[in-house]
Amino acid sequence: MYQMFLCYSMVDAGVMEWQTCSTQNAVTARSCGFKSHLQHMLNLTDKILVSYIIGVALGDGNLSNPNGRAVRLRITCDLKYPFLISKIEQSLKKLAPQNKVSRINRGDRAIDISCYSNQWEQLFGWKAYGGSKIKQSVYVPNWILRNKKFCRACLCGLWETDGSVYKDRKYLTANFVTQIPSLARCVQKMLSITNYRASIQRLILSNNRVKFTFRIHRNASQFIKEMSIDKR
Predict the structure, then answer these.
(1) Which of 23, 144, 221, 230 has its CB 3.0 to 4.6 Å from that of 39, i.e. a possible disulfide?
(2) Does 28 share its domain with 96?
(3) Helix (H) or strand (E) holding 168
(4) Whole-prediction pTM
């Protein structure tokens, strides 16, 4: 029996629209942990939270569809960052309150945080079966790029996953690395929107890919505080 739910739909044009979503008995609770076997609905009302999760997913996230019925988001975290692991886990529980969020020990000093939803692909703009994020030229959605607060949250997610904070010759530095040109352009734009400037190094790798390294030296401590970056 179908039930009707109202949810936010994020379209590429960069606006939030109310749309009516049908839920169905397509995915079993055994495979995904979602109660009453309904389609996995996300709570997209907190746009800052959504922006943060999009940043996290673009950084260390991966989409797959192991059972052919529900898309799985898997975020890989280093075990030396217990606070960050808990933060991402709790953020996913807020975003997907009725879905099961699991920790899976990889055995290589890393852990996967896993959550199923058939809305992940629409939300992120990339596919479980589309190949790597490099191949799919992933990017930050336009609705984030049009709002400074959302840019801050997305940058936080990116820096807490694929970024680092360290001291270089006694000076604090905020560093971010990606091999995805489309994502690098988005990061550069978000830094400009939030009034920060980074030095950008482009290194051609042996596979002819380009490694983009963003370094923020000036006002690094202010940047870390303003973006609420807490990688520990």
Answers:
(1) 23
(2) yes
(3) strand 163-168
(4) 0.83
